[in-house]
Amino acid sequence: MTQKTWRIGVAGLGTVGGGLLQFLSDRPDFAPAGDRAVVTAVSARNRSRPRPVDISGLAWFDDPVALASSPDIDIFVELVGGSDGPAKAAVEAALKAGKPVVTANKALIAEHGAELAVLAETAGVPLLFEAAVMGGTPAVKMLREAMVGDDVSALAGILNGTCNFILSEMEAKGRGFKEVLADAQALGYAEADPTMDVGGFDAAHKISILAALAFGCAPNYAAAEIEGIDQVEQLDITLAKDLGYRIRLIASTEKTDDGVAVRVHPSLVAFGHPLAETRGATNALFIEGSRIGRIFLQGPGAGAGPTAAAVAADIADVMTASRRPVFQSPAAILAPFIAVAPTRRVGKAYLRLLVKDQPGVIAAVSETLAGSGVSIDSFLQKPVEDAGGVPIVLTTHAIAESVLTDAIDRLERLDVVIERPRLLRIARI
Ligand SMILES: NC(=O)c1ccc[n+]([C@@H]2O[C@H](COP(=O)([O-])OP(=O)(O)OC[C@H]3O[C@@H](n4cnc5c(N)ncnc54)[C@H](OP(=O)(O)O)[C@@H]3O)[C@@H](O)[C@H]2O)c1
């Protein structure tokens, strides 16, 4: 059999693009069919910036859109990033030119995946994005390929390594969010502008993509309910620990008769649960299916080596002519995403109140909760130095979010309650 050489065009030569250049330079014959993958053309902003391999012999494009539609490449790899701008324009150009596209761009796929899937399937070319979720850990292929024989009902996981690193450090060192964030930035775990990560938006992009793959609907990032970790206080980490829980940023999605819910919340996870024991920048995901049962995936969610390996796996799929719809169904008949209203969520919760140190407080709080229909599971009152009041923590039995919000509004109006009670969800999975 003659060996074919696939010409790869790579836009974006940063962490992931640099890792891919290095990998394909070392292992051009990595793909199972025995063909070769060779980077022949590249695009980045700064041509003179040093790269992990010598790019002087490669065709250079200032404009990634021009690279994407170049007749001299067989596969276009987008590693620029960003939901819009040059990344989107280049991917669109490649698909319109009939080129297979591989990308690591979660923002692009979560926000524009449905329209890009139409372009890809109209052109009859693959659009692959394994590296967009959990970096080197194969969550996308798991749902798109290995689990098509099952009906997935729910997913829940830790999809942002920066947040997990920060929460793990806050717990281990007893330090506040801002101090730990500064450390994470110094160590390169967090960006100079950490909003996408700590605001929960990055995790929301990823879980929106996984929801689309799991449930065969169009991705709908706009419907995601998003809360980041920037309001998580050391006090809550300590009190949650006293109750037997760790706080993790949990991205979850489930399908019910009402539709699909996609959520990102700092949540309590019981000690011993694999998500509670996932520390540092590691990612983890539970997949719940009706026939296979539960699957747990854990691994690196970022970094040049792992992420480039996932990009390479997609390149190999193109080379071996693996052909599937971009999501679970052909784009033309992809089910619409029907969002479940946040108020319809039912789950257990943690409420932390800061109250005045005076008699009758517990009775007032208990009566208000009972009056709202909230049933208490556990209760903890603990003096904490410098807390600005007496913290009271309680966990509830499963309850509708609307009932809980009403109870919080009522508690906040009590004279003895110093600030709006803090709500954290208790992870279901
Ligand atoms: N980093 C990870 O571990 C990781 C993990 C999973 C997924 N991802 C995703 O992978 C993608 C790339 O991430 P990254 O961390 O590698 O980013 P990065 O290190 O910031 O690299 C971005 C690259 O894009 C180039 N670029 C920026 N604007 C451009 C433009 N207008 N035209 C051409 N090139 C342009 C930059 O050029 P210069 O080098 O010349 O500045 C740089 O090479 C993103 O979608 C990200 O979400 C990253």
Topology, please?
Elements: E1 5-11, H1 15-26, E2 36-43, E3 59-61, H2 64-68, E4 75-78, H3 85-96, E5 101-103, H4 106-123, E6 127-128, H5 139-146, E7 152-158, H6 161-173, H7 177-186, H8 195-198, H9 201-215, E8 225-226, H10 234-242, E9 245-256, E10 259-270, E11 282-289, E12 293-300, H11 304-319, E13 346-347, E14 349-355, H12 361-372, E15 376-381, E16 390-396, E17 399-400, H13 401-413, E18 422-426
Parallel strand pairs: 1-2, 1-4, 2-3, 4-5, 5-6, 8-10, 10-18
Antiparallel strand pairs: 7-9, 7-11, 9-10, 11-12, 13-17, 14-16, 14-18, 15-16
The protein binds NADP nicotinamide-adenine-dinucleotide phosphate (NAP).
NADP nicotinamide-adenine-dinucleotide phosphate is lined by residues 11-17, 43-46, 49, 64, 79-81, 86, 104-106, 131, 135, 302-303, 307.
In short, what is this structure?
By secondary structure, this protein is an alpha/beta fold. Helices cover 34% and strands 24% of the residues.
Bound ligands, named by name, code or SMILES: NADP nicotinamide-adenine-dinucleotide phosphate
Question: What shape does the CA trace take?
Answer: elongated
Sheet of most strands: 10 strands, mixed
Secondary structure: helix percent: 25-40%
Tally of alpha and pi helices? 13
Second rung of CATH, namely the architecture of the largest domain: 2-Layer Sandwich
| Portion in strands | 15-25%
Mean pLDDT: 94
CATH topology of the largest domain: Dihydrodipicolinate Reductase, domain 2
Termini gap: 49 Å
CATH class of the largest domain, named Alpha Beta
- Beta-strand segment tally: 18
- The parts where pLDDT drops under 50 for at least 5 residues are none
